Amino acid sequence: MARSSPQTTSPGSGHTGLRREVGVIGLLWASVGAIIGSGWLFGAQKAAVAAGPAALLSWGIGAVAIILLALVHAELGGLFPVAGGTARYPHYAFGGFAGMSFGWFTWLQAATIAPIEVQAMINYARHWSWARGLLNDDLTLTGAGIAVAAALLGVFVAVNFLGVRLLAHTNSAATVWKVAIPVLTIFVLGIAQFHGSNFTVHGFAPDGAKGVLAAISSSGVIFALLGFEQAIQWAGESRNPRRDIPRAVLGSVVIGTVVYLMLQVVFIGALPPQTLANGWSGLTYPGISGPFAGLATLIGLGWLATVLFIDSVISPAGTGLVYITSSSRVTYGLSRNGYAPQVLQSTDRRAVPWLGLLIAWIAGVLCFLPFPSWQRLVGFITSAVVLMYAGAPLAFGVLRKRLPGMERSYHLPGGAVVSPLAFVVASLVIYWSGWDTLWRLGLAILIGYVLLGGYRAYAVSKGVPNAPRMDFRAGQWLPVYLVGMGLISWQGGFGAGAKGNLPLWWDVAVVVAFALVVYYWALAIALPAEEIERNIRGVEVVDLNGH
Q: What letter does residue 22 receive in the DSSP assignment?
């Protein structure tokens, strides 16, 4: 494939398309900025309550899962440096049906993360008396809180209208702050107060392996580590994507993992012993709704608490900005693939896909209605994001098998092993999200099929030229996978409503076996090489060659 030209053109838009203006630092900070958001403000406390000191194991397992997925994405991102990349990979390998499905999964996660960052900002704002009417006692949003949250989302959208170059510079500056404050917190808490006995007073793993595994999905561990894919979503605007995307993806995961592990260590060690009188599940202290700021106040570090309250606005706001950007780019990518109306490719004079931004705002506001608290959204978003990630190992395996000669700027060593392992790990994380989360995710998936399937039926009836073929044969494994994961979750032991018929470890074995069967089945029935090349040419000619 040819190298990218400085800019691309959106058909029918009348305006210049996405411009390639972002360097490696901008891509790296986009991913790091997405990783270090509200997750660092709440993740350590939620994980400690769920798993005790063994939350360190949860972070370790979560980091391994994310690293495996990031390695796969690094090769694909360098291979296909296009806007909204994660929404496109399954389309190349499996055709229309799988591509449409994973495109919806990708959009769903991108559109729901900005609202959760807004909720984090409002949660911490309870420190100020004027904001206390925005939340109920159970930390759900009041009517006034929903109105303020909608306005904050509107601010994110407005900033995006200023263009990706300014956004990249703004995000880079904000990310320097976002990395510096957690690092400062690690050093200050670690030096000011550290009780080594906290790691053993109630046992290292008070809830055993189940607590460790549950914390990975439901308590915010995986959620906190998500975000490396932002460099991929911005690939259509990267100056040197084949070189810079793998560096940005892998570099962001390393930075995020180190920061989160150290935050968990200092949070556990800095807790005054009396806060653990009722065990880890009963952990409480004044200000715990803002865990790190409340802890800093409790141990006499008022100045640090002030800095953290300021950061509670900057960190989530920076992440929210990035995901509003990504949501609009995924919408652009869905339209480019023919799954959504062509008008969604329209860009303004600053090369901003403006309709995608408006849709992101509407979807974000709707999220506040069924999920009006930070904690309620975490499990849902985690399972949606990892389901999106699960498409990459499958596409990776198919492309390595069908098109081994394609030029790859980054060639993953041991890809034949890493790829199925990444798919297995993604399936386990989805399972650990719990039945009460997965049935809601299933409902959201059905809504997506109605919307995107309805548009395709309309496009076919009207003879729209880029209406994709569905290729149901190549994607027949997908409904089996979705329904199968739902049934396993229902019969397993994670989440409210689960039947508990699959004991711990037996359930893990079932998920592993099922995921491997689906992985190799999908590879066996994927599109032949000629059709994959046709799919790539059909979507990427405009994006990569500028005509």
A: B
